[in-house]
Amino acid sequence: MILSMTGFGRNFLANDFCYVKTEIKSVNSKYLDLRFRLPKLFNYLEIDLMNIFREKALRGKIDISVDVQFRKPVKIPKINHNMLNLYLDALREIQMESEVLDDIRIDHLIHYDDILEFNEDKETEEKVGAFIKDSVSQALQELNGMRQKEGENLYNDLKERIERLKESAKKIDNLKNSVFDYWLDKFKKRMEKLDIEAQEDRITQEAGFYAEKADITEEVVRVDSHLNQFMSTLEKEDFCGKKLDFISQELHREFNTIGSKSNSADVVNIVVSAKSEIDKIREQVQNIV
């Protein structure tokens, strides 16, 4: 089943340590473009999370936002009294030498990072990290569920458009045999207009020559092959967006060649409609993973 690149997933998890809220938004992109917003303490998880998305997302511009609210602190602050006393002595000395009358305040001291030390609760941090991974995985599952539903809509739309292209190809195939008659009639009328008497076999030979140059049998066969390949890929392959885009380009090229080679107004009109249909297919294919 095909997946759309557009989707949204959200997850909330809570345990004894924290609350975790994860939101994932995905839009179209040629490649997999991941953008994480994680709490600073858990930036180290980004590589592991990227591997999860590479396995289950493959393509799309995906924004992942994770918010963590702790029930108990993971980092416990502790005063480094030795450093505090050293800074206080230095500030008092500055007061005396510069005759600054301001009192020493807390906000003068908090700029020095080594006054406060943090005893990290590694066990809790690891548990919260694993909890974040679970939340992201569940949000990704919801995202892919939405992408799958949108993919079903894309499948139905593309299937209808391919059926219309098959009808167009069938009409062109029926009209291609009239090319010789077109040139034969054209040469006969030209001879009559110029009042020139020409041998029948000579006119037939000339008509055959031009009909051969305008022959579109190969293009019609390739169009039929591309249409069958498109549907086979759509029905049997996962993550097929790039392949479908390539087949769509080939279809456009074949119909374009048919239009340029054919002298039939009916064929040209069918080609114009078919190319319009292919343009819509290519727009839809851009949204497939």
From TrEMBL:
Residues 148-178 form a coiled coil. Residues 174-288 form the Endoribonuclease YicC-like C-terminal domain. InterPro entries: YicC-like_C, YicC-like_N, YicC/YloC-like. Keywords: Coiled coil, Endonuclease, Hydrolase, Nuclease. Its cofactor is a divalent metal cation. Residues 2-155 form the Endoribonuclease YicC-like N-terminal domain. GO terms for molecular function: hydrolase activity; RNA endonuclease activity. PANTHER family: UPF0701 PROTEIN YICC. Belongs to the YicC/YloC family. This is YicC family protein. It comes from Flexistipes sinusarabici. The lineage of its organism: Bacteria, Pseudomonadati, Deferribacterota, Deferribacteres, Deferribacterales.
